[in-house]
Design a protein that fits this description.
Shape of chain A: globular
Helix content of chain A: 40-55%
Structural class of chain A: alpha/beta
CATH topology of the largest domain in chain A: TIM Barrel
Number of strands of chain A: 16
Largest interface: A-B, 34 and 34 residues
Number of helices of chain A: 15
Distance between the termini of chain A: 41 Å
Largest sheet of chain A: 8 strands, parallel
Oligomer: homodimer
Radius of gyration of chain A: 20 Å
CATH class of the largest domain in chain A: Alpha Beta
CATH superfamily of the largest domain in chain A: Queuine tRNA-ribosyltransferase-like
Amino acid sequence: MDHAVKHFGYTLLKQDRSARLGEIVTPRGVIRTPAFMPVGTVATVKALYPEQVKEAGADILLGNTYHLMLRPGAERIARLGGLHKFMRWDGPILTDSGGFQVMSLSTIRKITEEGAQFQSHIDGSKHMLTPERSIEIQCLLGSDIQMQFDECIQLPAERKEVERSMELSLRWAERSKRAFEQQVAMGGARPGQALFAIVQGGVDRDLRQRSARALVEMGFPGYAIGGLAVGEGHEAMVATLEETVPHLPQDKPRYLMGVGTPQDLIESVRRGIDMFDCVMPTRNGRHGMAFTWSGRVNLHNARHAEDLAPLDPESTCPAARDYSRAYLHHLVKAGEYLGAMILSWTNTVFYQDLMAAMRAAIAEGRFEAWADDTKTRLAQKG
Amino acid sequence: MDHAVKHFGYTLLKQDRSARLGEIVTPRGVIRTPAFMPVGTVATVKALYPEQVKEAGADILLGNTYHLMLRPGAERIARLGGLHKFMRWDGPILTDSGGFQVMSLSTIRKITEEGAQFQSHIDGSKHMLTPERSIEIQCLLGSDIQMQFDECIQLPAERKEVERSMELSLRWAERSKRAFEQQVAMGGARPGQALFAIVQGGVDRDLRQRSARALVEMGFPGYAIGGLAVGEGHEAMVATLEETVPHLPQDKPRYLMGVGTPQDLIESVRRGIDMFDCVMPTRNGRHGMAFTWSGRVNLHNARHAEDLAPLDPESTCPAARDYSRAYLHHLVKAGEYLGAMILSWTNTVFYQDLMAAMRAAIAEGRFEAWADDTKTRLAQKG
């Protein structure tokens, strides 16, 4: 950790229409934006060594509060010296608040004003997450960027229901902020750690704007857009971004949660988003699906069985150049660990290479042309 | 490949009582003996990158004829340039003959004088392995050391049955030798590739001696002892070695197939064995069991849950020193890829470190003392 830096800050370095090149400074290092955060759900980016994640170019990764509170437990991680030491990652870590997983993974949920009651998907044990407990857990984990506790509802939903949920999340934002400030005062949070707010409101323009304005009014060092990529479709997602981003401050980072495909990332950066996370590169890798600069490749497909070509000669990942598609096809068909390992690795590198290419294009003022060209290339059958 | 060397040869460098320090020269490189061969069943040492296997110190690895003939198929691997290129391993490879897996994995076997009929454990398809086909497959794979086709029976068995089987394996040895010589004549085998014989005979002293003598009479560049570690127990295995090894020539390598625990390896080297293979390091690694210099460690055990100590400070594997036992416990409990990856790696390195330590002890004429001391250490609860 760089003890010289004790603050958290965002600098907008260059803007190319709405696309932003920036940098987030934290005590644990600089995050170059637009940034993609590999997901280390249960304190490991699945099937990758931490060195591979770092070498791929990731400045920050994401940990899941829901998973880690259940196993191995936040208090245990704190006793072991915090999440960074536990998983051997010395760069910044962002933790989500647990709200999304309570909805998507746990059973027997009961949402009240107080918080969310749920049963663990692992052993059925009962747990309660509130804004205060979520912040406490994130402080125990020692994450550098923490997220407010929010409710995340499945779309489509009635407007009334979306509104009720958005307003609950606003009240939870206030409680999260207060809890975080108390942690700072008590020494539970360290200088330079930051709490981000989450804009909710489904795909409703008016609700999104109300949510964004209320959160900006409260004042946070960063703003996320949550509750998207839950079934509303690419067009609705992009439209919601266009309606929401203008209501967020220029001088704070903007994080689109849980997104997405390479095309999603390009279209979101085009609309001013700075940060992303998604399980797609590793999950798809485990399922034999590769992202390449000439499109997606399904390695289960028999057409690769005798193809000596490498997966992606343009990748900066050695594995994408060294192994033949025939070998990867074999590994995937045989269900071998190495298949998941290689493809999780090449996909993770692809996502980082994609972000680096976006940053370079913005820096050189040619993002629009780059984006159109790249989307065409990525739409190929790889 | 070192094209300067076109022959296969074994040199006994030093003997310490019965323990032997030696070196097998092949066109693809030198194998320092005693050697342990990591098992790359379906063209991958499970959960390891080939670079990790190499860096662990392995000079040679093993591929399984049975698995590879079924998936992806020997002819396919030949069309793709051979097994070495396919799996990115440029050192020597030994392939077994398929006999053992026909017994242990396939269903509906019919053994005749001609060979073994069986059904694939993958898709139920019907296959026939004969000595001639086994050698043909091994030549298609391009392995540097090939094994005769043999029958491998489950112990305990009636003496009559063991005798019948041993004699069948002798006739198959002759046919394997003839088939290999034909491959050499036709260019299907390359100069410097070698065919090893397999001594059978269960735990019967007389049958083992008859098998060994008959095979030595035929003349092979190396001799394996097969049909052990199939349920007869450590004592019977060691006794069989003591009765068999004296009937093998001094100037040829001796390979004990499918063995074993660290203690098995030490006792076998003590009795003059030069080569081993076993799935134990990687299989145990996938199941949360680690080999360390202070004994076996079951990482499922709750006593590791908050243990910040590394797995094995004496290991030459970085992962055995870098990760805490608490983290490994967490990964194993959560069933994460990284747990299997790390423990397969540290176990593979442990086995190579063990062989290196044996070679050093023999070189310095202190094998007996080293062996007794090491067995005591390894019997600890790690």
